[in-house]
Known about the structure:
Chain A has 322 residues and is an alpha/beta fold. Chain A is built from 14 helices and ten strands. In chain A, helix 3 crosses helix 11. Chain D is 33% helix and 24% strand. Chain D is α/β, with parallel strands linked by helices and 259 residues long. Chain D is built from seven helices and nine strands; from the N terminus they run βββαββαααβαβαββα. Chains B, C: It is a multi-pass membrane protein.
Amino acid sequence: KADNKSTNTNASTNAPKPSKEAASENVTNAPETTAAPSAKTVLRIGMMSSYDVIPYVMINELGLADKYNLDLQLEVFTSAKDRDAAFLAGELDGVLTDYIGVCIYQNADFDVKITGITDGDYVLVAGKSSGITSMNDIKGKSIAISQNTLIDYTLDQILAKNSMESDSVVKEIVPRIPDRVELLRNNKIDLGLLPEPFASIVLNDGAVYLGSANDIGLYPAVSAFTKKVLDEKSEAVRDLYLAYNEAVAYINKTDISSYEDIVIKTVGYPEEMKGQITIEPFRESKLPPREDVESAIAWASKKELCSSDLTYEQMVYDVYSK
Amino acid sequence: MIFVQGFLSINLIWLIAFLLTDTPVIPNPLRVYQSFAIVLKDHMLIHILYSLRRIGAGLAISLIIGVPAGILLAYSRRANRILYPLIYFSYPIPKTALLPIAMLLLGMRDGSKVVIMVLVIVFQVIVSVRDSIQAIDKTMYQFIKSTGAGNLAIIRHVTLPAILPQLLTSLRVSLGAAVSILFFVEGYGTTYGMGYYILDAWSRINYIEMYIGIITIAVIGFLLFVSIDYLAYRICKWSYTGSSL
Amino acid sequence: MIFVQGFLSINLIWLIAFLLTDTPVIPNPLRVYQSFAIVLKDHMLIHILYSLRRIGAGLAISLIIGVPAGILLAYSRRANRILYPLIYFSYPIPKTALLPIAMLLLGMRDGSKVVIMVLVIVFQVIVSVRDSIQAIDKTMYQFIKSTGAGNLAIIRHVTLPAILPQLLTSLRVSLGAAVSILFFVEGYGTTYGMGYYILDAWSRINYIEMYIGIITIAVIGFLLFVSIDYLAYRICKWSYTGSSL
Amino acid sequence: MLIINDLSIHYKSKQGDNPVICHLSFQLQEGESLAILGPSGCGKSTLINALAGSLAAESGTMEFAARDQGYPLSPKQHKIGLIPQNCGLLPWKTVRENCLLPLKIRKEYHKNKHTQELNRLSKALNIQDILNKYPNELSGGQLQRSAIARAFLLEPDLLLMDEPFSALDEITRAEARELFLRVWKYQKPTTILVTHSIEEALYLGNILSVMDAQGGNIKYQKNNPYFGQLYPDHADYLTAKQILRQQLVTKEEGMDTFE
Amino acid sequence: MLIINDLSIHYKSKQGDNPVICHLSFQLQEGESLAILGPSGCGKSTLINALAGSLAAESGTMEFAARDQGYPLSPKQHKIGLIPQNCGLLPWKTVRENCLLPLKIRKEYHKNKHTQELNRLSKALNIQDILNKYPNELSGGQLQRSAIARAFLLEPDLLLMDEPFSALDEITRAEARELFLRVWKYQKPTTILVTHSIEEALYLGNILSVMDAQGGNIKYQKNNPYFGQLYPDHADYLTAKQILRQQLVTKEEGMDTFE
Ligand SMILES: Nc1ncnc2c1ncn2[C@@H]1O[C@H](COP(=O)(O)OP(=O)(O)OP(=O)(O)O)[C@@H](O)[C@H]1O
Ligand SMILES: Nc1ncnc2c1ncn2[C@@H]1O[C@H](COP(=O)(O)OP(=O)(O)OP(=O)(O)O)[C@@H](O)[C@H]1O
Ligand SMILES: [Mg+2]
Ligand SMILES: [Mg+2]
């Protein structure tokens, strides 16, 4: 219990504290906690530092975790492989991941269920000096991506939406996103499919916006828990989503200036961007649409990442069902 | 003196690289040093202490396991038969790929970090202890055997002093490896340590902080290296005598 | 024989671990070996060749740079003044953190991969060459100097043979390091190589294939190690003679 | 009493076995001093190393009884003082540490007694000034004198000396020989002395033997009436010297190879 | 002609400077053989190593002229044959390779000529059988004979021998001495021989000198009328031996320290 302090993302002290009263006003459903207040349920969630994380950090920042009697430990990883290793080792209860990730877990006989959606966009950008100005120019150009991930999947979906084959661009594997940014900025590569804050950084730098996952109605990021945790801590997980929704409500309603420092620190925006950051409204957590999940399964099974028999029902779990 | 020289020469190379290229990946060294003060308040000392503790534990455990194992391997024919294939087989296994197993057995805190570090270093120690024992001049043993010395006394009076210089070399090499691996194991399950500091800055494309981290690691490493050299000079006094050639 | 022994003992440990734990992280070794045949068609040989080429290039360049640098450092007081601080300062720098620079300067293909590998290995070679030269018995030089031998002849007839055993040790250790680093550099800009193979399997949480990759690397590494031992036995014939003790 | 029975020693090397000592047997009474002469390369050092326990015998037994300690001969059981041909000082210990090492290993070190004794010995051998130096700072003769001091300090039951005075100038050598005689008379260790000097053998061995050039057997053995006598003007002394010299000449090689 | 002028040699160590040779000056005509005697540790090997170019002098000059080659003395300019006290064979080369190494380094190796010459020398020194062995497989005397062969094979202008026969039995030693005399008479190298045997010095040196125990100076020097004569029954021979022995006795230490 003592070391959770080091792993919880705490706002720096000079950031203006968001008012807890403001958050409490939005509470519509009081939690039906049965456990004694002293015995908080521990939920350990693994994530990579990104835009999706903001509501989770706000849950702790706004004191919502205490309210729901949760000990929410957010573990930040620098690589998805490390996160998966920790998850499989039982060091985590849940993760922020995506459709493809859950397909892979399922394929490894590791029963992980999608329990909610998270929000984050993936922007297709072209390098400043690549000469590309629209989707029509990208045929045969090179793009730095990671393989067998949601980036790979999202790229294929965007290409398909623009009536192109998956192999109409040259895919280069570059595991770390900062390296992709650097290659793009230095014209070693033509295209990138980047999440925040990297998209903003390169766009500020003069890169060309070509399209995004959200543009084509794709929201592939989700939160997921193991079936075991869902069975053992179902109430805590449900409370987490209640807290999540409250945090989302607070974010959507409050001006960003009162929590911008937390956002900068969580997502990793450069300090210079302070004041220019915009937050798209977050959606409340719910289960992802069936067509999206099934389309992801189809893609993953084609890549031999999972079996084609995988069904929507196997993939998701409704925390409100019990 | 040496420190200043090394420091300046590296920075000169860096400055030239900065002037020749024009990318944020190689920032102006002057700007980096300017930012040093601002960053020091980022609990740099805590980061350093965390990393030193992990390196210290990793090196100590590796030596405690590696030196006796190397000695056993070099002297005992039976141990050699059993351990030699095992070690030659496990040495090339990329230890970082064993992370899932390490996490499974020891969690994602310092346990698995130190174990991965030990797995990487201990084989280097074993191999170099074994090899340096095999290189000991056989006549070194002749006299000590006539005194009726047991195996422990032989190891203490002949083997260890004879391999000490090479052991210190191996320690230097291992130290380098430990620092590298820090960079891998501090990428998960912690928010302290120099490895984390650099990775974090890197993922935020904050090259200034990243270089501050790298320089800090280099300075610490340099100091540790110089301490090992000083140690070598003190312990291996005999090999520095009579060397007028 | 040795090979079979090492192979079996590792697998025994693995089997026990499998039986004791129950997670996909440690799969049944038998199932892994069953899948071997299926996987062999994955162009395993091509993966192996790519990796061997990178390791070969990395080791060769490291030796070509490291051995002369180590010799220079050990013998020339002036070179020592300039290089010593530079080397002690650059050695602890985590080379993998220089990846962005390497990528920008040398692209994402084998250029940057080999450079990173060399940066990791070359310091180990330099430090151990320098240290082993300093450990050479000074009386070794006495006779050769009286023949009027120049520096090159001294290096050829005294220095190199004297440090050869330690150089081979250093080669063994570097080989281990090269395999580890393979795992890092084959993570980008390529779809061939054992490192890629393992990382790819890992990211797909396909532990069966991941272990197949690890075993393949271990077997290759083992074979390389045994070749170095054989080489040592052939080249350092003199040190294996008169060793009846 | 030292009993060597059917001792054979080979060196194994890649070019094959090299049998150096084949079926050697001899006996030596307790407290006697045997001087061994023999052509270079005949196996004298090999025998000494085997007796000292640092070389394994192919076959045969070595038994030793002194002060009621049992056989077989073993460095663990018996107190063996050794002066190897190469002196055998450990380079990482000072001369003083080297001298005290056997005592410390045998757990027989008494600070007062042995410091005093070492001082006496090093004064007699004139090595007081180098006691704190490391072996690689010493001259050949200084190394040898240090090895002598180390062996005598141990007060051994079996004293094995392999050309112990070869690197000493005549004065120092004479002093060291006197020292040996005094030590021997006082402690009566069973002694084997390998030497190339016939005079030295006649002076320091009460039994003389000559080793064969091949097979490492003792081809000549005799009691020595001139033991401890310097330059006796006995006419027989010169005859004895001549006999020993003749024994050393091997058939194959003689003055006639000088062509 | 070898001219040593005001030569000083120190050993630097942590405990401070150790001056071994201070302001030594002497001359040696071309083709002469100087035998140096001196108490153990007085600096004889130090002088030899300095002349061989393997030890840097603190101050002073060493000049050598032979066959019209210029001074100063340098192993690059002059052909120096060295028999170090520890033999100095490289452990990673066989005896044969060790013997040929100086020739190869000087680029003077002629396969036919030197193979034949090495065969002759190794026959005379009885080391034919060990030419293909490595030094760590050899006995002390075999090592020394190999070093002798190596030095003689080079046909040096300056021959430096540091106790070259100390580990040889009397027969082999006599043969080796004869070999030296023949080599010396034939090639006339300027020779410096360090020895502890007064007889050897009288036999092999046409100039005799004795080094001081302190300061490394030459305290006694004399031409030797008995050069090359074995056991001369001249009465003066015994006197000469006696004088040399007396010169070796240093003031501080004598027979009286034997208490
Ligand atoms: N370590 C070894 N390996 C192989 N052969 C060896 C070894 N040591 C000695 N020999 C051989 O064994 C024989 C006897 O050697 P040893 O050293 O006993 O001779 P020695 O009688 O002491 O001669 P010396 O008087 O020259 O010292 C020699 O022919 C030598 O070549
Ligand atoms: N490498 C060294 N470092 C420091 N001191 C040394 C070194 N070598 C020799 N000495 C010292 O220098 C002095 C002279 O040594 P040197 O070897 O020249 O003596 P030597 O006359 O050859 O004696 P010996 O007859 O015993 O061989 C000795 O007192 C010795 O202790
Ligand atoms: Mg011998
Ligand atoms: Mg000497």
